[in-house]
From TrEMBL, chains A, B, C, D:
The protein's name: TetR/AcrR family transcriptional regulator
Top-level division of the source organism's lineage: Bacteria
PANTHER family attached to this UniProt entry: HTH-TYPE TRANSCRIPTIONAL REGULATOR BETI, HTH-TYPE TRANSCRIPTIONAL REGULATOR RUTR
Statement: the UniProt record of this protein carries the keyword Calcium: no
SUPFAM superfamilies documented for this protein: Homeodomain-like, Tetracyclin repressor-like, C-terminal domain
PROSITE patterns recorded: HTH_TETR_2 (PS50977)
A Pfam entry, by short name: TetR_C_24
Residues annotated to bind DNA: 38-57
Keyword field: DNA-binding, Transcription, Transcription regulation
Domain named HTH tetR-type: residues: 15-75
Length: 229, 229, 229, 229
DNA sequence: AATGAATGAGGCTTCATTCAT
DNA sequence: TATGAATGAAGCCTCATTCAT
């Protein structure tokens, strides 16, 4: 999706510069937030005057869209490749997990912008990426459904199960920075262990838990009421 | 935490109006985002002139902090109450889960602002809420550690385990709206089932999985390389 | 000049409160400047709500006028008293000097406002105090003229001479605070010694001075030109 | 000291416009006061939109600082040049006087802002100009001290003597406008005559003065007491 | 391919003043 | 006498965007 009015010819140097500008923008957006990053900041960091910037990007929102693409496009093509593999549903899910975590970990700044500033896009852009996201989520949904059809997965609500998988993975972007580097395969194995063990085993309530739980809930209600006054 | 310079007398009506202004702000912030919501918008929605608004709030950032408090304060007092109960670690974790999900579900707009706009706060506010958040997370950490000491929980990295629990719960704010209403206790049971089953059971790799996995990873690498050009 | 609408009756407590409010205002104005001091600040410092404040003062500008009066009125009545004394012109001038410095030193905050914020008054107030100031300056003018008539003072320009006297005294308000306390009589004697010695003695150019001066001026011109480029 | 973020290229036209904006600001500040002059007023007078204005100035306070520099910088470089001349202390003082009065008379509007709105600057700016002012005053101090070392000047308090010199000169800005044009050299000669004659001659109290003075002071006390009620 | 200059709407905040109670 | 609540204009400043060159 090149900048408007830049469709003909402009090869080589143009696209190289363009990518550079986006690189710079990603860094600033992820560090300071989309709203708090001015176009001027981007220009300065890229060593380009405002006019030149607009020659490459078209608008601030287009820049945001471009960053989204950089995350979504690999995610979708990898998911498509995974879908074609002839593997068990567990492995398929683990591969999707690794693909997703690869982006989250190795392109943390892109993902930060992608997951956090999504709402800043409006109109056509918003719809476009709603659809793309939805397509990715379908891959996960379908994979889990596969396991269910095989009688391996025991869950009532498929939607919710898919979302739980995403919860587990996506929120990682929030706390990743500032921690020691994580390896994609290890983190993926950790998440998938929890998730797969959870959805493939039936629920076994420990004895006495129900009573304790009821007690606790009563206590919480009391605290809530006390705070209300 | 009343607005600066508003310490004289001001009872009843003042505090009622104040709460009303915050209510209005929460709604707008959660709908349109903090950065995209102008103080003027809040004033208009509250039926108050710009000047009067500042009589109640002090600053836009103070408003944000106030919203944070509305989420964090109950969370912390409930967590404290839970900590004092004499219950199994599973039940304790489920109660923490229910407490957290109660906020996420019943005060969804507050939580949206709380989880999404956290970074907009700066200086003292930021530190303040970093600490409060950290205190809450400690409750979860401690509870899981309790299970581990009892030999029930089998995980290597306690930090990561705590974060996984938070991932599972917190990201819920992202997709909650637009879905049919969820019951706190059901969602909590679902999340806790997955999480507790996961961390209390050892990992059992299905036969043949390793090979398939390796195959899949090779495929992913290929896709990645192809996209690189 | 009581606040508008406060003319009838309002004795005792009213006037006491009023003076208190002005006291507070003087302190704040002299410390932070007239423009930078809000009516709210005054209210807070006086322990009065905004409404009550306006009951006593009428307007911020009226407050400023009132402070001016507190300086000008004693100055004018003392000058009138001095004018009636049967003393030499030197003594008369020294008494005027002492009267003026008494205000500058003992009511430094009032004088600060009086001399510095004069221009903030507009319309009628401005004219009023232009006249009052002018009346005071006349006393000095007349006194010096007396010495000139007696053949003791040798100056060409009476206006300028009067203004030089005022320069010497008035600018004191700028640097007074932050220095060790000065005694009115000593400072007055110092200023009057310089001034009276100066205007009662003829000018005697030291030998060689003219030439050096011309040299210096040439040097200054060069510096000025160099900076201009 | 160009506006922040304006370091790229910007020659010629930029600096010309910048100077023009400052010129306009000086005029408005000196006429209406710094606090009472809005940035909008400056823009309007300069024929520039608000945004463009900030392209040139950075902030209102930076504008004020710039104006200060326009006065202080020449003052300091001229003083430095004077310090290097091999002339008598009287001539040196007269040259300092002429340098100072040159600014006061020929750049009256700048000096008005410089002397009157100094207190509006805060933080770093304030310190910066406190230091610059202090450096200039040192030149005067040192010069007078030179005369004293030579046994020509008879004063007790060097600080006070320096300040008296500044009083005499600086306050001129207050009444200069609205009078017929003054020549730098004449006014300087007038001031220096008074000042030098004053500090180089011993004090000779006229006979009978002490008694008259005492009488007058008693009278003043009476007036003051009468006003107190 | 790139620039610097300009725009104008909108950002948050403060302020002197009024008025019903 | 005194208050708290409200106003609305004005304050300074930032920003995404455009355009002649």
């Amino acid at each position: 999706m090149p900048a408007a009015g830049a469709e003909r010819g402009k090869t080589e140097r143009y696209y190289r510069q363009r990518e550079r500008v986006i690189d710079v923008a990603v860094e600033l957006f992820s560090k300071n937030g989309y709203a708090s990053t001015g176009v001027a900041d981007i220009g300065e960091a890229a060593g380009l005057a405002r006019g030149a910037l607009y020659y490459y990007i078209g608008s601030k929102e287009a820049l945001l869209a471009e960053i989204h693409d950089r995350v979504m496009d690999p995610l979708l093509s990898e998911a498509a490749a995974i879908a074609e593999l002839d593997v068990s549903f567990e492995v398929r899910l683990r591969l999707l997990s690794e693909s997703l975590l690869w982006q989250i970990i190795n392109r943390h700044d892109h993902v930060w912008v992608f997951l956090h500033e999504y709402h800043q896009m409006q109109g056509e852009y918003r719809e476009l990426f709603r659809d793309k996201r939805s397509r990715f989520e379908q891959h996960i949904h379908v994979t889990i459904a596969q396991g269910r059809k095989q009688g391996l997965v025991h869950v009532k609500d498929m939607e919710l199960t898919t979302l739980a998988f995403l919860n587990l993975h996506n929120y990682t972007y929030q706390w990743l920075s500032g921690r020691r580097p994580l390896k994609v395969e290890e983190l993926s194995q950790f998440y998938c262990h929890i998730f797969l063990t959870g959805i493939t085993n039936a629920w076994q309530q420990p004895a006495g838990a129900t009573k304790e739980l009821r007690l606790g809930r009563t206590r919480l209600q009391a605290v809530r009421k006390a705070a209300g006054s």
